Amino acid sequence: MIEIRTGDCLDHLRMMPAQSAHTCVTSPPYFGLRDYDVDGQIGLEESPYAFVGKLVEVFREVRRVLREDGTLWLNLGDSYAGSWGAEGRRETESVEESWQGSRIVNHPRRARKCPEGLKPKDRMMIPARVALALQADGWWLRDEIVWHKPNPMPCSVSDRTTPAHEMIYLLSKSRRYFFDGEAIKEPATGRASGNRSGYTVPGQRGGVNANIGGSLHRIGPREMRNRRSVWSVSLKPYSGAHFATFPPDLIEPCILAGSPVGGTVLDPFGGAGTTALVALRNVRNAVLCELNPDYAAMAQDRVEAEMHRLEAARRERERQPDFFREATA
C-alpha cells in the first residue's frame, strides 16, 4: 500500500495513529536554498536556529508515529552564512540551477543579515545542529553516515574545496530497535595489499620490503562484512522534477535495514516520491506527505507507473517455462 498525502506534513502526522510506521526515511528542504513557491514551506525561516527548531517539532511527531523499535534515517545538506544556499551563491544572484535542477529564487525573506553568532562565509553546520537538537529532544543518535558523491556539481569557489558529500543520520526511538544488518551487508574486499613496506620476510637479508607489489587474494567463497559508514552513490537527477531527489540506491539500504518485508516506511517530505518507489520495489508499504500539490501528483504518477512495471514483470515471469520443473517431471 502506497499512500501520498498532500498538505503540511505536521498536520498529516498529527492525524496518523501512534506506532504505525516501522521507519522514516527522508530528506527535508535545505535551509535557505530553495523556494518551492508554496506557503508554509520549511527552509525559509529567518535563522538557522528557527529552522532547526521547526525540524525538531516535525520529528517529534514522527517519533510518535514510529513503533517503539522504529528508526529515522535523515539526509541533510549544509548551507553557508550570508550566501545563497549550499554552494555559497552570491546574494545578488536571482535564479540559478543547482545540480538537482531546482530553482534558486530571489526571495525577499532571504535578503537578511548574517545569522547571529555566524559570520559571512561561515559553514553553518546545519546537519550537526539538527542531529544534536534531535538527540537533546529524546532521540538516540546511533550513526553518522557519509554520502560520498563521485560526481558532485562543479563549484566555482576558489577559497575552499568543492562539496562532494552529505550526511545521513540514523536515529532511533528507543535504546533497542529494529535493524536488519544482514540485509545491507557488503562484499569484503577479498584481497590484501601485497606491498608491505617495512615488513621483513624471515631469513631475508638486505632490504626491508617483503615484495615489490601485487596483491594477495583470499581463497574461498567471497566474504561479506558489515556495511561501512561511507556510501559512494552517484547523483541521478530526476528530469521531471525541479527540486532535489535523492538517488534510489542511496535510500535502499535505509529501507532494507530499517523495516521488515511488509513494513511501513514514512517520508514527511515526499517530494517526487523516490522513497515510495524504493519501498514498493522492496515489498514495503509507504506513507508520504508532500506540501506542493504538483509534486504530490508527480509522485503519484511515478508510483502508478512503477506498479504497472512491476505487474508486467510478474506476468512475464509467470509466462516463462519452468525448466527445472519440466526436467524433474
Structure notes:
With 329 residues, the chain is of the alpha/beta class. It has a single domain (2-187, 221-307), classed as 3-Layer(aba) Sandwich (Rossmann fold), CATH 3.40.50. The chain is 27% helix and 19% strand. The protein contains seven helices and twelve strands. An eight-stranded mixed sheet has the order 1-12-11-2-3-5-4-10, sandwiched between helices. A two-stranded antiparallel ribbon has the order 6-9. Strand 11 (264-267), helix 5 and strand 12 (285-290) form a beta-alpha-beta unit. Helix 1 packs parallel to helix 2 (48-65), helix 4 packs across helix 5 (274-281) and helix 5 packs parallel to helix 6. 33% of the residues are buried. One of its GO terms (molecular function) is N-methyltransferase activity. Its EC number is 2.1.1.-. Residues 22-300 form the DNA methylase N-4/N-6 domain.
Helix/strand layout:
Elements: E1 2-6, H1 9-15, E2 21-26, H2 48-65, E3 66-76, H3 126-136, E4 140-148, E5 165-172, E6 186-187, E7 191-193, E8 215-217, E9 224-225, E10 230-232, H4 248-258, E11 264-267, H5 274-281, E12 285-290, H6 293-319, H7 323-328
Parallel strand pairs: 1-12, 2-3, 2-11, 4-10, 11-12
Antiparallel strand pairs: 3-5, 4-5, 6-9, 7-8
Helix pairs in contact: 1-2, 2-3, 4-5, 5-6
Keywords: DNA-binding, Methyltransferase, Restriction system, S-adenosyl-L-methionine, Transferase
Domain DNA methylase N-4/N-6: 22-300
EC number: 2.1.1.-
Which of globular, elongated, flat, extended, rod-shaped describes the shape? Answer: globular
Would you report the number of β strands?
12
Amino- and carboxy-terminal Cα gap: 38 Å
What share of residues is helical?
Answer: 25-40%
Q: What is the total number of structural domains?
A: 1
Can you count the helices? 7
The string of secondary-structure elements, in order, is EHEHEHEEEEEEEHEHEHH
